[in-house]
């Protein structure tokens, strides 16, 4: 039984359409995998930044409440020592 030209063209068209769909599906899977990896990396960065914000808020609260912490922070920022503090200079290796 010979295939009629119209039926043959339909089969070829269907094969081309399926091949095109498969190619795009694979490309979509690659893009999805890359997007998920980027999402995980960004989630890790977000967690690290949230921890940093938590620590900075804790430090700000400490500085607002404790005058000793304020003095220590000022001395550290200015690079000086307090009246009862000793400076130890370690040799470089």
Topology:
Elements: H1 5-65, H2 67-78
Helix pairs in contact: 1-2
Explain how this protein is built.
With 93 residues, the protein is mainly alpha-helical. The chain has one domain (5-76). It contains 2 helices and no strands. The chain has helices at 5-65, 67-78. Helix 1 (5-65) crosses helix 2. The mean pLDDT is 89.
Summary of the model, kept short:
With 93 residues, this protein is mostly helical. The chain is 78% helix and 0% strand.
Beta-strand percentage range: under 5%
Which stretches are poorly predicted, pLDDT < 50 over at least 5 residues? Answer: none
What would the average pLDDT be, to the nearest integer? Answer: 89
Give a short account of the largest sheet.
Answer: none
Taken in chain order, the helices and strands follow as: HH
End-to-end separation in angstroms reads: 90 Å
What is the count of structural domains?
Answer: 1
The tally of strands reads: 0
Structural class: mainly alpha
Q: What is the general shape?
A: rod-shaped
Q: Helical content, roughly?
A: over 70%
